Amino acid sequence: MDPLAPAAPLVPRLTLGQVSDFLDAAFPPDARPALGTLVELRPGRLRMRLDPQPAMLRPGAIVSGPTLMALADVAAYAVIAAHHGPEAMALTSTLSIAFLRPCRPEPVFADANLLKLGRRTATVDVRLWQGDDRRLVAQATVGYVLPDAAA
């Protein structure tokens, strides 16, 4: 038996469209376009895409760190919602990010992979990339406290 294999297969409770509707309801309408769009949902995984706008750039025409952190956080929030259910759970407990190379003002993809989905906490690995999913611009580990534990 593989000790690193998950205890049970992760199966989404929501469809991609339902996750998108959930995000649209959870965030203010004027903020939502800056947080990326959903591209793909699979068991334990979710992909988002962000098309950087001029306001998201820092000097040197590089996508800003706060923009990348927001994308990682929203991708983690979305993959958890897809698998945990559509409950508002705005309790990010940790977010650690490593910026690996400059992020150009081109589409940025976020691949969020559930590492743990427990009763009280969830942990997500988010890899941000451009052009080729093997060429990362950043990698984040995001932790969430789930609704039942937040009360």
UniProtKB/TrEMBL annotation:
What Pfam family is a match, any one?
4HBT
**Entry's SUPFAM superfamilies?**
Thioesterase/thiol ester dehydrase-isomerase
Q: Which GO terms describe its cellular component?
A: cytosol
According to the entry, every stretch annotated as the Thioesterase domain falls at 62-135
Annotated keywords: Hydrolase
Which GO molecular function terms does the record list? Answer: 1,4-dihydroxy-2-naphthoyl-CoA thioesterase activity
Q: Does the entry feature the keyword Hydrolase, yes or no?
A: yes
Protein name as catalogued: Uncharacterized protein (TIGR00369 family)
Q: Which source organism does the UniProt entry give?
A: Aureimonas phyllosphaerae
